[in-house]
Amino acid sequence: MQKIPVTRDGKKGSDIMIIHSDDVVKIESVKDKEYVIHTVNDKYYWAASLEAFEEWMYEEGFRLIDQMNVVNMNHVTDYDVKKGIVYLSPENETRSKTASAAWIHKDHIANVKNMLGEVKKLDRSSDPDDFQDDIFASIVEQEEDSRFARSYAMIQAIYERKKAEKKLEQSEQRYKSLFQHNPDPICSFDRYGYCTSANPALFRMTGYTEDELLNKSIHHLIVPEHMERWQEQFNGTLSGQNHLYEITFLHKKGHPVELSVLNVPIVVNGQMNGVYMIGKDISERKRAEEMLLRSEKLSIVGQLAAGVAHEIRNPLTSLKGFVQLMQMKISGYESYFDIMLDELERINFIVSEFLVIAKPQSVRYQQKQVVQILQNTVALLGSQAMIHNVVLEMSADEPLPPINCDENQIKQVFINILNNAIDSMPDGGEIRMELGMWDENTLLIRFIDQGCGIPEERIPRLGEPFYTTKEKGTGLGLMVTFKIIENHGGRMEIRSEVNQGTTVEIFMPVIREKLID
């Protein structure tokens, strides 16, 4: 839209005003280089040559329609051929003005009006592909008068330019939508590794805001052990290659986020301008792989146990019998015999735990109240806890729905957890047991001790066979515990801090049909 300097009276020294070309409906020639500028409600004066004026205003849709008038064809609302006048009124205006039009311009005015109408519709449209170019081609091809052909060609050029701009805008909007609404994190970097743009998925995944990441390095997001990998892949992408690799980011709150990343070079005018990073959160996949690996380990141990347990138990029974026989026959070595029997019992205990893994146990699932099972377990371990100066405290919400379980197996789970908690507090302490509803379908059983705790890097491996934090442990107790909870349709989570204690949480599905008193 052009800005036109005008005056009210056309006299030298008068104050100059600025009006916009879109408000102008016609330009009327007074004499050489002097024109009256008409809006629908007013008129002004302007001095310039017609040639300069027409060249300047041509793209705005102004056309010379007789010797006296240059008309803004965008505002032509009607054309009376008999009277030789056009009616001019901008959109949303009730008033109008007229301008004389030579008869020779009859078809020309209609053509320009139609062509500019298409340009207007294109301006208002959101999809340039909806428009056909037939009207322009037919009008331009049929026109023999060079004066009019130039005008049509100019409008067609304007139309094609606007259409190209619309398509470019549409393409940019599609790219922006793909970038902004992509569920996977995407960001771009300049050659120096500074983040120049990022989509909302990256901010959600990392917990950082736009101000905290844009125009900054993201080195603080990468775990230290992966920094060298990141730099190597980034430099490789700057050399023009795509790179696919895995890396671990750190969320703002501190927890790791596993990513599969594709680096793509950004090339502008043949020059390497930066790097696109397209990521995919694979944390869940990694956890699933770890669970699968743990399951495979359990399967291997089960196969091993099936072949070994029975072979051990047979000679074990013989050894235990002969030791007991020798204990009755020989005196003076009672302490040695006691130690031997204790160790044989320990071997038998380990073999028993092997058998839990090796073969399906005879289980009887019944509706049971977890509170009752836990109270019975606490009664069994009360004396052991007292010897170690450990206090057992229990609290439960009432009423709690029952669970479908094998009571002996659940009791074994509680014994394993409480024994571990007692062993972690050689100087005594307190174990709190809390029972309540996690949600409407899940029961939460929580054990909190004040023991020595477990280093964070060891927690993911708890439950693996033969992995233990105890000096004389086997790792089988916790493995069996995980297996029992899993077989009951539940899950178990362990949180711990060194010298702060450990929290074990068991989530079990409940039965909602009825409550057991």
UniProtKB/TrEMBL annotation:
Class of this enzyme: transferase
Ranges for domain PAS: 171-241
EC number: 2.7.13.3
Secretion signal span: none
CDD domains from the UniProt entry: HATPase, HisKA, PAS
Domain of life according to the entry: Bacteria
Keywords for this protein: ATP-binding, Coiled coil, Kinase, Nucleotide-binding, Phosphoprotein, Transferase, Two-component regulatory system
Matches recorded under SMART domains: HATPase_c (SM00387), HisKA (SM00388), PAS (SM00091)
InterPro entries assigned: HATPase_C_sf, HATPase_dom, His_kinase_dom, HisK_dim/P_dom, HisK_dim/P_sf, LytTR_DNA-bd_dom, PAS, PAS-assoc_C
Coiled coil: 154-181
Catalytic activity: ATP + protein L-histidine = ADP + protein N-phospho-L-histidine
Any one GO molecular function term: protein histidine kinase activity
Domain Histidine kinase: 307-512
UniProt xrefs under Pfam families: HATPase_c, HisKA, LytTR, PAS
Domain PAC: 243-294
Annotated protein name in UniProt: histidine kinase
Gene: kinE_6
